[in-house]
Specification:
The chain is α+β, with helices and mostly antiparallel strands. It has eight helices and six strands.
């Protein structure tokens, strides 16, 4: 898939934005063909060199860019020549989705396996054991703690987990074995 096709996808745009932030997005959104130096990118885009370097190293850490060092024989200075590898984005996104699935599955289990109490004044949530330690009174304001129903939250998590499993083609048993 060409850079242009990938960068036209709003999901990929959001992914890149989450990685490099708003100051690094111009670098991520306009990858040149072939090798380029960080100085060339900064000059061409009118950006601060440090912002360009920060974005490049974040892309490097996520296997979306690589560099080659070249030493100037006269001055001894190192020049970094950067190449973008956006063909790795789909695989990276799939790994992110697997991490999200595992995290949601753990959180769903936690929400299902615990009983919660809420201070409606301060909007502080306590597990049953904590609420019992405080005599079912909020330690902040002293108001009574009310039993909290979280079945809608658990149902929403289960719905999202099912969506992710379908999208990733992961069976329930496989996902639970990973957790």
């Amino acid at each position: 898939m060409a850079f242009e096709d990938l960068l036209g996808d709003p999901v990929i745009q959001k992914y890149l934005h989450e990685l490099v932030g708003p100051t690094g997005m111009p670098v991520a959104a306009a990858p040149p063909d072939g090798e380029v130096t960080d100085e060339e990118l900064a000059e061409d885009m009118g950006l601060e060199l440090n912002d360009v370097r920060r974005a490049l190293f974040i892309l490097y850490e996520n296997d979306l860019a690589s560099y080659r060092r070249v030493r100037d024989e006269d001055s001894g200075w190192l020049t970094y020549l950067w190449t973008f590898h956006y063909e790795n984005i789909p695989e990276n996104l799939e790994e992110e989705m697997h991490r999200l699935l595992e995290g949601l599955d753990r959180r769903r289990s936690y929400e299902s396996d615990h009983q919660f109490y809420l201070c409606e004044v301060d909007s502080i949530r306590f597990e049953f054991e904590e609420a019992m330690e405080f005599g079912f009174e909020c330690p902040e304001c002293g108001s009574p703690l009310e039993s909290m129903e979280n079945s809608r939250l658990v149902e929403a998590m289960e719905w999202r987990i099912d969506q992710l499993r379908d999208e990733l083609n992961v069976e329930r048993d496989e996902a639970e074995a990973e957790a």
